Here is the input.
Amino acid sequence: MVEPVENASIRLLTGTGSVYLFNKPTSQHIYDCLRQAIIHGDILPGTQLSEKEMSLQFCVSRQPIREAFIKLSQDGLIHIFPQRGTLVSRISAKRVADGRFIREAVEIAIVEQAAQCINAEQLARLECNLQEQEREAQIENRDRFLELDDEFHCELAQSIDRVAAWKNLENIKANMDRVRYLSLFKESPLLTLAMQHRAILNAIQAHDSDAAKSAMKNHLNELVIYFSSISTRNAEWFES
Here is the structure.
């Protein structure tokens, strides 16, 4: 699932076999790796995580593992029980609803401004991203599509110099991302999501703020519409 961590840089193998090199603090690498594994279901809800086992797997001391666990706990992805152990949490409907509420407020504000001030270079980057989304959707490459999805939303924030706003959503939307991943198997086909992104981009290109806000709200409303069926179909993932 994960490659051993080195001090200077970490080599992570993706599901497609591509190799990426990063230069971040070791605890951040471990956090990123475990976060993705939990969101994608490679580590299932209820799984017990051991600092000792993780330190052996990543070839590091326990300190960066402990730091990564604290961040995952803050995201609501794991529960740390002192003297008892650490478990991957089940999805909290309350956290999902809170995350969606905050994300909608931020992203609607982003597209409203983007429609007013985006430039040609930024539009071109979004178009390139969306074309790649459409290609990955055709071949059902879920992992790469989700990467591109996040990059698309981050690029929108970048277009109005509000990347910090998007980054602050990362922790808030962790449980949303778990539900989003589950939805790709039935409720939200990749091509449907790509079409929703196309509607957002078309509205921004037309400098139509109202249409951009409406398209973004429609896109983020997927979780509200399908949450019940997703949680019923994957009951073991969710809190009672």
Q: What stands out?
A: Strands lie at 10-13, 19-22, 48-49, 78-81, 85-88. The CA atoms of residues 102 and 124 lie 28 Å apart.
